[in-house]
Amino acid sequence: MALLGQTVICGLLLGGMYALIAIGMTLIMGVMKIINLAHGSLVMVGMYVTYVCYRAWGLDPYLGMLVAMPVLFLLGCVIQHFLINRLLEVESVLPENQVLLTVGISLVLTEVIRFIFKSDYRSIATPYTGEALLVGGMSISIAMAVGFVIAMVFTYLLHLFLTRTDLGRAIRATAQDREAAQYMGVDARRVTVITFGLGSALAAAGGSLLLPLFYLWPDIGHLFTAKAFIITILGGMGSTTGALLGGLTLGVAESLGATYIGMGYKDVVGLVIFLLVLLFLPHGLRSLVRR
Amino acid sequence: MLKIRNIHVAYGDLRALVDVSLEVGEGELVALVGANGAGKSTTLKTVSGILRPSAGAIEFAGEDITRLQPHRIAALGIAHVPEGRRLFPEMTVLENLEMGALRPEARKKRKQSLEWVFSLFPVLRERERQPAGTLSGGQQQMLAIGRGLMSLPRLLMLDEPSLGLAPVLVKHVFEIVREINRQGITVLLVEQNVMQVLRFCHRGYVLENGRIVLGGRGTELLNDAHVKESYLGI
Ligand SMILES: Nc1ncnc2c1ncn2[C@@H]1O[C@H](COP(=O)(O)OP(=O)(O)O)[C@@H](O)[C@H]1O
Ligand SMILES: [Mg+2]
């Protein structure tokens, strides 16, 4: 019983951090109507920034995150402004090709990081690595608990931003009806640039929170793209609340899979859920409620 | 106030507007009427900067706006209430209205404008917290007009506000449009409801296959033989 409890709680904690990454992807999808297949690579780059802060200045990853987020925000803005928006100006290019472009961006990011850091596995050791809280016979990793709490705080702050500020509302308005948003005086291009930046900053935040828990190497990005994609589909494409629920679901499923099937099957469980959802719940978890 | 001069607009090979010119003077209520597919919405979208004319020019309050970005045109005080309402369905009524008041002049007066819009459309006050997507068709149209008014526009462009509404509601919407104009706002009203609109507009233009075929005072157009035959079925 304690094992089950511990497995589920670990899954929820992990899922909260995944959700933060997926919310970034969801925001980008909402505004640009594309799946950003470079998202996991942005997570990976964010993790390396935090990693470098740790190695170079001994900065704790929870502080390094505050460096990685603005760096990734800028990187995201640059990608949207100079690459994705540029592509749209060429009339012969189909909008779907933006997705191909994100694949290209993901490869470039991965190879640049490989060039700088080689393919070595890296990890960081903080004073709390390996420390755990003991609650009613269950042992909960401190890094997981702290990471979860920070992820939830960021999710809440994002919610406030999107609902209370003019810029946040302009982002939601552009996602719901781009043309109408322009009639209101919203600069849709600027919104796309800021949204990609924001999504990338969230990717960096999620990655930094996971850094004390995961090995880091250049190709880990693809793993996070897959996870974020699964969560986005689970969440019903484009809803932030959906992404949060999807993240928690994936975290719990992975955790159950790792405990009861085997550590190596953790990621397979996610993919199986993904296929099942595509087959039976094409609109995500929401279709369970709507029915 | 608004001067459209000889504009040509095309969608790829399809010529949607050919040499269209029209004017709206300060304080006027001008109607642009025509059948489905005549190019009415295309005209408004070109004024808003969503579409670009291949030739011709558009001037607003003495400024050339032909090449301006849509958000800059909106910032000058041109409000476009698009065909089909185009609300933000997952935002509340209040949020939709607040989205209308983004330009700095309007943002400062948000509270007063809200009171004004609620006095014109009391039903919106009751539904303030409801998502716009859950309103009835008539309420959605009122919200769309209210959202346009929140920008305290110098020119209000309405694209078929009567579309899909029951006859009583159509009458109500037209009354509100006249009231808005009486309060001093310049209005360019696009409609297919030719008979009703020509009765109360100051001036009207008739658009056919992308060309302006007639223009004049509303009452003159009502008595025009071509208008009678083509639009009033007389
Ligand atoms: N996005 C578009 N792409 C191609 N053709 C269009 C598009 N929008 C409108 N059209 C065509 O342009 C012409 C004018 O359309 P529109 O301005 O919407 O007419 P109206 O508003 O008077 O009904 C029509 O022939 C229509 O089929
Ligand atoms: Mg139309």
Summarize the structure.
The complex is a heterodimer of chains A (291) and B (234). With 291 residues, chain A is an all-alpha fold.
Break the fold down into its secondary structure elements and pairings.
The complex is a heterodimer of chains A (291) and B (234).
Chain A: H1 2-32, H2 39-57, H3 61-89, H4 97-117, E1 132-135, E2 138-141, H5 142-164, H6 166-176, H7 178-183, H8 188-210, H9 220-234, H10 240-260, H11 266-280, H12 286-290
Antiparallel strand pairs in A: 1-2
Chain B: E1 2-11, E2 14-24, E3 29-33, H1 40-48, E4 55-60, E5 63-64, H2 70-75, E6 78-81, H3 93-100, H4 104-108, H5 110-120, H6 122-126, H7 137-149, E7 155-159, H8 167-182, E8 186-191, H9 194-200, E9 203-208, E10 211-217, H10 218-222, H11 225-231
Helix pairs in contact in B: 3-7
The structure holds adenosine-5'-diphosphate (ADP) and magnesium ion.
Describe this structure in words.
- The complex is a heterodimer of chains A (291) and B (234).
- Chain A is mainly α and 291 residues long.
- Chain A has helices at 2-32, 39-57, 61-89, 97-117, 142-164, 166-176, 178-183, 188-210, 220-234, 240-260, 266-280, 286-290; strands at 132-135, 138-141.
- Helices cover 75% and strands 3% of the residues of chain A.
- Chain A has a two-stranded antiparallel sheet with strand order 1-2.
- Chain A is globular, with a radius of gyration of 19 Å.
- The model of chain A has no long low-confidence stretch (mean pLDDT 90).
- In chain B, 47% of the residues are buried.
- In chain B, helix 3 (93-100) packs parallel to helix 7.
- The longest helix of chain B is centred in the C-terminal third of the chain and has 16 residues, at 167-182.
- The interface between A and B is medium-sized, with 17 and 27 residues.
- Adenosine-5'-diphosphate (ADP) binds next to strand 2 and helix 1 of chain B.
